[in-house]
From TrEMBL:
Keywords: Antibiotic resistance, Hydrolase, TPR repeat
Keyword Iron belongs to the record: no
Record's protein name: Beta-lactamase
InterPro entries referenced in this protein's UniProt entry, alphabetically: Beta-lactam-related (IPR001466), Beta-lactam/transpept-like (IPR012338), Beta-lactam_class-C_AS (IPR001586), Beta-lactamase-like_AB/R (IPR051478), Peptidase_S12_Pab87-rel_C (IPR021860), TPR-like_helical_dom_sf (IPR011990), TPR_rpt (IPR019734)
Taxon lineage: Bacteria, Pseudomonadati, Bacteroidota, Saprospiria, Saprospirales
Annotated SMART domains: TPR
Organism listed in the record: Candidatus Opimibacter skivensis
Family in the record: Belongs to the class-C beta-lactamase family.
Domain Peptidase S12 Pab87-related C-terminal as annotated: residue spans: 485-566
Beta-lactamase-related domain: residues covered: 36-341
């Protein structure tokens, strides 16, 4: 099972509502938090830009990479899904110019050979693609990257067309918000077809050139290459991402300096021919996103006089955030060359009531130091000594240890990989993924007997682990999977909405004798019984338990994923 996942149930993004009056310097708690993250090895660099009545101000911390140069407001980062706002701006510009309508059905722009799905005679529109109500999934099911470190690079237009032609919509168009990289990537593709130029050329002539954003492109210029902050995950350098087909969803690279130019036009501080188009993108189209509104591209958090308009982004080695308040003309951009999220910094700058997350160094940094210096011999003993002596000093994460294990496995260094996966099994004995990864390393090391044992354990914990079944059969073992059936009347008691954290629910529904779970902003997937109260997903390594009170009434649901347990109360 690969260490890179493309589907997550656990919530990532939540919103701030009250604007914080900015100072001429960063607030002390923000500065301390940033320095802690850099010292802990979480983020090689963080650049913050603030735009308010004092004009643009920049605060830069860290380096482009371990031995790189210091970053500044001109350092280049992948902005990921903030690209969606640029795609929405291109759409709005064409609408203002009368070249198309927000309600145009998308099939009129695509080759006649592409059979775009409809629902009860209703067609997906350009607006549906931009505001995430198209009923298309987050990602197409024929997305199968050859290189997990650059996952979008080999996804082709023909594959996208093939998916569209074969996909059946599962709900009415416009009925529900579901964040979709596919939808906005498709929108960018349609707009480039309409314009008769590449997405990047359309972006340049419509947005970045008129706004003098010379550091915002997809294809890096020579100067941008010199200023590129190298992407990192868990302290290790990772390649940049390429999105040739779905460019509109997340392919843009930029600087904080350019992003404040963009925010200045968004807030009406700088006049631009794009102003009317930008105003159009801010208009709410629905309020189905966790109680928040969505315009064209932008997410809009309610807050009385201080309504906040925002978006964020993430690629393999970068996370970014921009947000602003039109009423008070204050905007914030936060960029980092790390997969460690910085949204909390952006939201805290806009709302000091939003908490900054606690920061501890990941124990994998220390484990990597031990491996590089002393090898993997006795790594488990050294890990246990570290954990016992410094229990509160390090952050221990199943996913982090798993990823470091795959890092060594990719280098064909089996000994440290095996030691790390063994530690994960010890630390997370109820994780199917931990056993699966350990089994994979054992199999590659030629220890089939122990690999079989661990694959069987993984399958016992998660009967939906098709990879374990495939690997066991490859090694000549044919596992028998017991079929568990739960009476429909029992399944009915599980139906309902469970709030895991504010703004993030899991909705459980029943169709005939099948149970389905849908996390906020994600697809609906069937969950399968392991027992009368334990269920598992087949699309991701995650399990759900339904919990009863003393009277036998279902009161909570617990989601198990990535070594974490989150319990949500059933709403009445």
């Amino acid at each position: 099972m690969t260490s890179v996942k493309y589907f997550f149930l656990l919530p990532i993004l939540f919103l701030g509502f009250i604007l914080h009056a900015q100072q001429n310097d960063l607030p002390a708690d923000i500065k301390a938090s940033i320095l802690q993250r850099i010292d802990a090895g979480k983020n090689p660099s963080i650049v913050v830009g603030i735009l308010d009545s004092n004009g643009p101000r920049y605060f830069s911390f860290g380096k482009t990479t371990e031995n790189g140069k210091k970053v500044d407001e001109h350092s280049i980062y992948e902005i990921g899904s903030i690209s969606k706002v640029f795609t929405a701006t291109l759409l709005a510009d064409m609408i203002i110019k009368g070249q198309l309508s927000v309600d145009d059905p998308i099939e009129i722009f695509l080759p006649i050979s592409v059979h775009v799905p409809t629902y009860e005679g209703k067609h997906i529109t350009l607006g549906n693609l931009s505001d995430h109500t198209s009923s298309l999934p987050r990602m197409p099911d024929n997305f199968d990257p050859a290189d997990p470190l650059n996952p979008y690079a080999d996804y082709t237009v023909d594959q996208m067309y093939s998916f569209l032609s074969s996909y059946t919509l599962t709900r009415p168009i416009g009925s529900q918000y579901e964040y979709s990289n596919l939808a906005v990537g498709l929108l960018g593709h349609i707009l480039s077809l309409k314009a008769g130029v590449s997405y990047e050329d359309l972006l340049t002539r419509t947005v970045t050139a008129p706004l003098h954003m010379d550091e915002t492109r997809i294809t890096l210029s020579g100067e941008m290459k010199k200023n590129l902050a190298i992407g990192h995950t868990m302290g290790m350098e990772v390649p940049n991402w390429d999105l040739p087909t779905l460019a509109g969803a997340g392919a843009i690279r930029s600087s904080v300096s350019d992003m404040l130019k963009f925010l200045s036009v968004q807030m009406g501080i700088t006049a631009s021919p794009l102003s009317k188009a930008i105003e159009l993108t801010h208009q709410p189209r629905h309020d189905k996103a966790n109680g928040n509104s969505v315009g064209l591209g932008w997410h809009i958090a309610p807050g009385g006089e201080h309504e906040i308009i925002w978006h964020n982004g993430a690629t393999g080695g970068y996370t970014t955030f921009i947000g602003f308040c039109n009423d008070t003309k204050t905007g914030v951009a936060v960029f980092t060359n790390s997969s460690e999220n910085v949204d909390d910094i952006g939201f805290h700058l806009l709302n000091p009531e939003r908490e900054l997350k606690s920061v501890k160094p990941g124990i994998i940094k220390k484990l990597k130091e031990i491996i590089e210096k002393d090898g993997a011999d006795k790594l488990t003993e050294k890990f246990m000594a570290l954990k016992q002596k410094n229990a509160d000093e390090y952050e221990i994460s199943e996913n982090d240890i798993n990823t470091l294990g795959y890092y060594y496995l990719s280098l064909k260094k089996n000994e440290p990989a095996l030691a790390l996966f063994s530690i994960n099994v010890m630390e997370y004995p109820n994780s199917a993924n931990a056993y699966d990864s350990y089994a994979e390393a054992l199999m590659k090391n030629g220890d089939n007997e122990l690999a079989i044992k661990n694959y069987k354990k993984s399958l016992e914990l998660n009967p939906g682990n098709s990879n374990a079944v495939e690997m066991l059969e490859k090694m000549g073992t044919h596992p028998e999977l017991p079929e568990v059936k739960v009476d429909g009347t029992i399944l009915e008691t599980y139906v309902g909405t469970y709030e895991l954290v504010p703004g993030f629910d899991i909705v459980v529904t029943k169709e005939e004798d099948h149970l389905f779970a849908q996390a906020t902003g994600q697809d609906k997937f069937e969950i399968f019984p392991k027992s009368s109260t334990e269920f598992f997903y087949k699309v991701v390594d995650a399990q759900i338990n339904f919990n009863k009170n003393d009277d036998g009434k279902i009161i909570t649901l617990t989601l198990h994923q990535g070594g974490r347990d989150i319990t949500g109360k059933k709403k009445e």
